[in-house]
């Protein structure tokens, strides 16, 4: 009887939602959301809409608009990794376009799981139940995969062509991507295991000092490896400015308007996109501010198209409709990549803890106690399972993506209905293959100008986490030692690549181990994170420092209580 009543009540609410003006529009101030802001006016700081909590009743139009904002805010971070992977492996445009579509579709599907918070056995959960903890392609996997690809070309797994003048050109190698997927699939079980460890153990292994260092190194290395080189014309072989071959000019000699790497035209085009982000932040409406990176891409593409820099062949060749597994890759395991990918999943768990905490705060839910600990556990578990299924979806690890916290902070909407709309739009963008083809047509300088800002934002997130550290003498020592390896890799990328050149005729197993160690030591965030974790566990704390840490934890607890109290007042 009660189930019948609940069903009828649910149907009645749905009918009211879709048949009334209040159900469609509510009382939200849509002019605040859409009209531009003038930063020097008093109203700029006083206008603010109501806060929509996780399960609050929300108008349909507002839920869809908020979901679209979240989807657009994620786009740049979702399309960048597959574009960079395809460029590093010289894949054709059809395969590259499919990789973008698969990333969007996989993100939409796994984000639904992450925000669902499904109860499992023994008080464990799957997912966080938070809208801002959506799923995107991990930048840590991007940095590590590039190092793995380099190793594959060095050891002959992937072939290269050497010109008469000594210029090395990489041949297309889709099997390399399949090897990364296969290795990622088996390594994902490590993060699944970590999700069942007590929260205090994870906090001891990965304190903010370590997580902040890792995130800082990820952002900084991506600026140097991808963002800035693309801004100057391309992150492929053209950046060495060879005197022969297809990479004499960027992106290749077959581009509509090829130019030498670092040409002022490229720099100016990228700077236009960069400047568009700044102007949008200054004068844009809240809606545009949340998608400022997309605005930068759009402005850059409009100017690039008008001046003849865009090649539309990728749009023409892309299918109208696509889905997962339209293209497949031969999945296998690359043994030298196992150790680095295990380290990637450890870093994903580290990032997840900080991202879930930030998401809980901005969503105005508890940031302490059993419920919060269960969100941490459910988020890391969903992250690990997402890594497993993302490999089956032909996508590199899809992990927690907390940049959408900014959308919630501005729009004051943390409602799960908006999150479901976000997932719908992501899947829709992925299914419409022409959209992926359009993303692939974005000129390198435009992409570089935008992703340099995006990757720098990742580095700033790491700095923010480091700002929470009390910085005792021991902490400064651990951080200095970790950054020594991280900065060494950043400034001299080949410093550890010749470490085992003196070993003569190693067997295949030993050679694989050497390659694994080289990849780890040559990847800034892996080297810095490894040194930081080891020293943090080995170096003892002095008595005074333990007292300082205990006082700091008490202060943090009091601050969290204040945040929770203010959140309750806001909800009232």
What does this 3D model show about the protein?
The protein is mostly helical. The chain is built from 24 helices and 6 strands. The protein has helices spanning 2-19, 21-24, 30-34, 43-46, 60-88, 93-114, 139-155, 174-194, 199-205, 208-231, 264-283, 286-290, 292-306, 313-317, 338-362, 369-392, 405-411, 416-431, 433-440, 444-466, 473-491, 508-522, 524-538, 543-571, and strands at residues 118-119, 125-126, 134-137, 160-162, 168-170, 398-401. The strands form 3 sheets. Strands 1-2 form a two-stranded antiparallel ribbon. Strands 3-6 form a two-stranded antiparallel sheet. The protein has a two-stranded antiparallel ribbon with strand order 4-5. Helix 6 packs antiparallel against helix 16, helix 10 packs across helix 15 (338-362) and helix 11 (264-283) crosses helix 20. The chain is globular, with a radius of gyration of 24 Å.
Radius of gyration: 24 Å
Instruction: Give helix and strand order, one letter per element, not per position.
Output: HHHHHHEEEHEEHHHHHHHHHEHHHHHHHH
Shape: globular
Label the structural class: mainly alpha
Spatial order of strands in the largest sheet = 1-2
The count of strands amounts to: 6
Relative strand content: under 5%
- Low-confidence segments, ≥5 residues, pLDDT <50? 559-572
How far is the first residue's CA from the last residue's CA? Answer: 33 Å
Tally of helical segments: 24
Q: How would you characterize the largest beta sheet? A: 2 strands, antiparallel
Helical fraction equals 55-70%
Mean pLDDT: 83
Say what oligomer this is. single chain
């Amino acid at each position: 009887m009660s189930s019948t009543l609940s069903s009828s009540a649910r149907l009645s609410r749905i009918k009211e939602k879709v048949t009334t003006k209040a159900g469609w529009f509510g009382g939200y101030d849509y002019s605040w959301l859409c009209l531009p802001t003038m930063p020097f006016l008093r109203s700029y700081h006083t206008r603010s809409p109501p806060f929509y909590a996780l399960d609050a009743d929300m108008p349909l139009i507002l839920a869809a608009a908020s979901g679209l904002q979240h989807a657009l805010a994620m786009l740049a971070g979702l399309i960048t990794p597959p574009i960079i992977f395809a460029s590093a492996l010289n894949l054709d445009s059809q395969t590259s376009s499919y990789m973008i579509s698969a990333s969007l579709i996989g993100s939409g599907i796994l984000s639904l799981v992450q925000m669902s918070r499904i109860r499992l056995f023994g008080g464990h959960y799957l997912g966080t139940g938070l809208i801002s903890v959506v799923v995107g392609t991990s930048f840590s996997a991007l940095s590590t995969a590039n190092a793995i690809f380099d190793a594959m070309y060095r050891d002959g797994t992937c072939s290269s062509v050497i010109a008469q003048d000594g210029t090395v050109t990489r041949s297309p190698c889709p099997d390399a991507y399949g090897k990364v997927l296969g290795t990622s699939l088996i390594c994902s079980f490590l993060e699944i295991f970590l999700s069942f460890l007590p929260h205090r153990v994870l906090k001891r292994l990965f304190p903010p000092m370590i997580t902040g260092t890792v995130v800082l190194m990820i952002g900084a290395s991506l600026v140097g490896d991808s963002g800035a080189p693309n801004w100057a014309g391309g992150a492929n072989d053209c950046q060495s400015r060879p005197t022969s071959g297809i990479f004499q000019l960027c992106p290749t000699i077959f581009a509509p308007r090829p130019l030498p790497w670092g040409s002022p035209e490229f720099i100016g085009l990228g700077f236009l996109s960069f400047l568009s982000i700044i102007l949008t932040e200054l004068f844009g409406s809240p809606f545009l501010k949340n998608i400022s990176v997309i605005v930068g891409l759009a402005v850059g593409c409009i100017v690039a198209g008008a001046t003849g820099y865009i090649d539309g062949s990728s749009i023409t060749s892309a299918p109208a409709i696509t889905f997962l597994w339209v293209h497949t890759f031969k999945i296998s395991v690359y043994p030298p990549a196992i150790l680095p990918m295990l380290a990637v999943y450890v870093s994903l768990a580290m990032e997840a803890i900080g991202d879930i905490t930030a998401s809980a705060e901005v969503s105005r839910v508890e940031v302490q106690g059993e419920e919060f600990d269960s969100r941490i556990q459910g988020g890391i578990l969903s992250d690990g399972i997402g890594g497993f299924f993302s490999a089956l979806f032909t996508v590199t690890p899809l992990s927690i993506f907390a940049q959408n916290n900014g959308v919630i902070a501005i729009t004051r909407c943390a409602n799960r209905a908006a999150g479901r709309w976000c997932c719908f739009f992501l899947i829709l963008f992925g299914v419409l293959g022409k959209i992926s083809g359009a993303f692939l047509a974005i000129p390198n300088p435009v992409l570089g100008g935008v992703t340099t800002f995006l990757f720098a934002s990742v580095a700033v997130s790491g700095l923010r986490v480091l700002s929470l550290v009390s910085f005792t003498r021991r902490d400064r020592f651990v951080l200095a030692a970790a950054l020594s390896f991280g900065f060494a890799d950043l400034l001299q990328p080949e410093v550890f690549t010749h470490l085992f050149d003196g070993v003569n005729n190693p067997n295949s197993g030993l050679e694989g181990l050497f390659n694994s160690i080289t990849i780890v030591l040559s990847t800034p965030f892996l080297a810095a994170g490894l040194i930081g974790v080891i020293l943090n566990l080995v170096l003892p704390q002095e008595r005074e420092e333990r007292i300082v840490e205990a006082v700091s934890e008490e202060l943090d607890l009091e601050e969290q209580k204040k945040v929770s109290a203010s959140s309750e007042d806001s909800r009232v």
